[in-house]
Amino acid sequence: MKTNQVSRFRTILPQILACVAKSLILMDIxxxxxxxxxxxxxxxGTDPEKRGKESIQFTDVQASWFGSLAFVCxxxxxxxxxxVTERIGRKRAMIFVNIPHIAAWLMLHFATSVAEMYTAAxxxxxxxxxxxxxxxxxxxxxxxxxxxxxxxxxxxxxATLGYSIVYLLGSVTTWRNAALVCFATPILTILAILFxxxxxxxxxxxxxxxxxxRSLQWLRGWVxxxxxxxxxxxxxxxxxxxxDEKRNFTKDLWSKGTLKPFFIVxxxxxxxxxxxxxxxxxxxxxxxxxxxxxxxxxWATFIVGLLKLSGNVFCMISVKFLGKRKIxxxxxxxxxxxxxSVGLYAYLNLxxxxxxxxxxxxxxxxxxxxxxxxxFVLSFLTSFGIAPLPWVLLSEILPFRSRGLTSGISAAINxxxxxxxxxxxxxxxxxxxxxxxxxxxxxxxxxxxxxxxFLLPETEDRSLEEIEQHFSTQxxxxxxxxxxxxxxxxxEKDESLPLA
Length: 500
Description:
By secondary structure, this protein is mainly alpha-helical. It has helices at 8-43, 60-88, 90-96, 98-110, 114-142, 145-172, 175-193, 200-205, 209-219, 229-245, 249-253, 256-273, 284-290, 297-322, 324-349, 369-386, 389-394, 400-455, 464-473, 489-495. It contains 20 helices and no strands. The longest helix is centred in the last third of the chain and has 56 residues, at 400-455. The two termini are 32 Å apart.
């Protein structure tokens, strides 16, 4: 069948536009994650200059709950999200998941009590969990294999852009006004997604083949149907094959080809959340205040957000050249060294027993530039590797037949770890002291380097089939994935299948 030739740019443009609309959701996720860091110093009293006439007040324990409560609710959202997404479709799910955040941002803006702040945090957490499955599924199912990698990597960039926006808002306006600005994001997201088609493979699974064909025409450059007829037939064949594969789902779930990569990616999440910035993130403004950095702590957190954004961009650019294994080892080593350096400064220069939850006058110490640089390096190196890469591995090393459930479980475990890291920071700081807690994070980083050095194989430039066969047939300590299958057009057809 003769097809109409279209330019490469026209072919990928609609996929980029769909990715941009999807990224608005991820930006909202980033805003939700770091919002407590601009609220806690004011309501808990460690930044009394900005408290003003605010009627709500946090105790230390209430501050730690507000900084972590959203994360414990996210696994619930993840579980519900998978069920909903399969039934109503990726597009509708990406629209509906914004509704909780619209309510939560408004509630934060008008909150008059601690209970309302907690309720808003819970709704934000559920909303973030709801967002995971439709976003991951949609972008994996609509993209061609040649650009899927780079478009998937933009997820971290979008989230860290959300971090930077909130940190900037915390520097230039009140936290209530910041919540109102964040309120606009889910509304813009809904408007953008309304123009997108639904996932072709999901439409085929619901026997809506005419809609699936029109969706594929839109996604491949608004082309005539003969241009996508071959790919459409491949998706139909894939759907038929997938139904047969589900019959052996339980066996596949407990196979070594599933358990080994599940163990690796889950431990990756453990090391990421228990080292570096994860536990400190909700309290970063007051931590900078305690370290007596020579700049406004709110502006310092804004720079942290920019460095996290830069780290994600560098990761996206470098992964093709360095590979995920090498970037992981560089990132984890740098995180451990940065944490050790900042802890050493606190041990040598700050008074014993000093806590970031204490109320004390703002002091700018010129020597505070050293821990500030340490935090900046820590922020960049975290986002350069150990923060974004486990999400990329999640879509690569888990076998397709069990990927949906195992990736959901891994994501839920990650959010539980984020909650534990944020909730236990207060107790760790009180028990281990200011320098001890960050040395603890450094020690976890060292263990991470050892783990990844001996167990993390390089998956870059390997097909999904090669990765799956490696984990099914080789020992977990075998780090070389053989490139034994020629990457032909047929392979690209397989790799264009959904990631989740």
